[in-house]
Amino acid sequence: MNASQTVGVAVDVQNLSRKFRGNEALRDVNLQIPSGSIFGLVGLNGAGKTTLIRHLIGALVAKHGQVRVLGQDPVADPVGVLRRIGYLSEEDSLPQWLRVGELIDFSKAMYPTWDDAYAAELCEMFSLSRTSRLQSLSKGQRARAGLLVAIAHRPELLILDEPSSGLDPIARSDILEAIIRTVGEDGRTVLFSSHLLDEVARVCDTVALMSAGRIVERRTIEDLQSRYCEIICRENFADGDSPRLPAAFGWQRSGGEWSAVVETQRLEASLLSGDLQLLNRYEITLERWFTARANTSADDPLAIEEDESGPQQAIASGEIQ
């Protein structure tokens, strides 16, 4: 392990900011990803997820702040870092004139830790023939080939930037299964950026929400489910506006009923302070939490106390774009 690497941390980003033509793409991002975790990064288009990932793989230089991947600077030592990570994005950028076998052989030469037996196993799992040209494969099959060369060297860190975007359900399922097996068998670290929240919920143990270039909340899935719940209620004195309830956000109306996400520990006290009749209460889902956070209004701010990995943040809809 590099002497500068924080013990147990695969990714360490500190105070990272980035502007493009005067527009802020990243705003003082602080992010630590524990080794051995499957970490989900979610956010709407333009939130800054891909810009952050491009810093992690050394494609962008950190002009303000610091980035360390597996204890190393990905810009100062790109070869040393890239040999230890696997990367797959939504871009269909494999050289399509190659055959699958040629892609595998070319990739093998780049990685000292390449596992021939594992590559052959993945080829069989994904129904890939070494003699097939990439240009003759479907987009889903090329994505499988890309994942194969990203994980056959058993990387310490696997970075996935919207790997399932535009793929059919079978291809998405194959990719997720391979990710789960890779982490389950080897205990590797995975950074999984996706807008497909059902996939994130299925594989990730921790999730961070990005918005307007910053991390606005980070939770383990377990903590998310214990901290929040969804309520269905009726307002006794409806005036057309969303109800006002402390610690609740993401109001949605259906007929005469309202739903919202609320902090579980503050639910009873919140209801006592308002004119609301509680009709039902549900366990929170990642999708409902995300939707609620994205729809938080400027008139309904919610102070979020982060876990030990970050400071307090205040969230308003002006930051969720």
Automatic annotation (TrEMBL):
Keywords of the record: ATP-binding, Nucleotide-binding, Transport
Residue ranges with Polar residues bias: 310-321
Region of interest: Disordered: 301-321
UniProt xrefs under Pfam families: ABC_tran
A GO MF term: ATP binding
Keyword Nucleotide-binding among UniProt keywords: yes
SUPFAM superfamilies found in the cross-reference section: P-loop containing nucleoside triphosphate hydrolases
SMART domains, per the entry: AAA (SM00382)
Residue intervals of the ABC transporter domain: 11-237
Name of the protein in question: ABC transporter ATP-binding protein YtrB
